Amino acid sequence: MRQAHHPELGEITLTDVMAALGDPIRVGLVRVLADGRERGWGELLAPVAKSTLSHHLRVLRDAGLTRTRQEGTRCFVVLRREDLRTRFPGLLDAVLAAAETDDVGRQVGLKAAPHAAA
Fold first, then answer.
1. 19: helix, coil or strand?
2. Residue 112 pLDDT grade (very low, low, confident, very high; cuts 50, 70, 90)
3. What is this structure's pTM?
4. H helical segments located in the chain
C-alpha cells in the first residue's frame, strides 16, 4: 500500500485549509478530532457512505489539516493542531468556536464503544 502524502508546514496554504473547511461534514470531523486523540477511521460516525467519508478525510489530509497513519489494514487520523497553530495562529480556535456556536458538523461523531461483558 502506498504512503499518503502530507504537506509540509510551509506547503499548507490558507486557501486550501479554508476550502477543506467549506463542508459541514469536514468541519464535523475536525470538531471530533479537536480533542487531540488519534482516531481509527472505523471509529468515526458520519451520515455518508464509507467512500464519501474516505474522500472527506483525504481532502482534510491534502489541505494539511490532518495526518493519516496506516497500520496494516487500519488507518488512523489525527488533527495537525500544532502545525495549524504555527502556520495560522488563532485560525483553528476561531473555526472551532464558530462551529460550536453555529452547531456546524453536529451530525459527525464517534461510534459508541462496545460495552464490556459484566
1. helix
2. confident
3. 0.91
4. 14-20, 24-33, 50-63, 81-87, 91-102
CA distance 76 to 59: 15
Any idea which residue has 472551532 for its cell?
96
Task: Please report the pLDDT score of residue 46 as a whole number.
Answer: 97
Among residues 42, 115, 112, the alpha carbon closest in space to that of 77 is found at: 42
The domain spans of the chain are: 9-101
| Residue 100 Cα distances to 53, 56, 76, 96, angstroms | 21, 20, 24, 6
pLDDT at 29 over 50: yes
Calpha distance 96→89 (Å, rounded) = 13
Domain with residues 9-101, CATH architecture: Orthogonal Bundle (1.10)
- Partnered with residue 79 across adjacent β-strands are 66
Query: In angstroms, rounded to a whole number, what is the distance separating the alpha carbons of residues 91 and 69?
Result: 24
Residues 6 or more apart in contact with residue 15 via CB below 8 angstroms: none
Cα three-residue angle 26-76-30, rounded to 5 degrees: 25
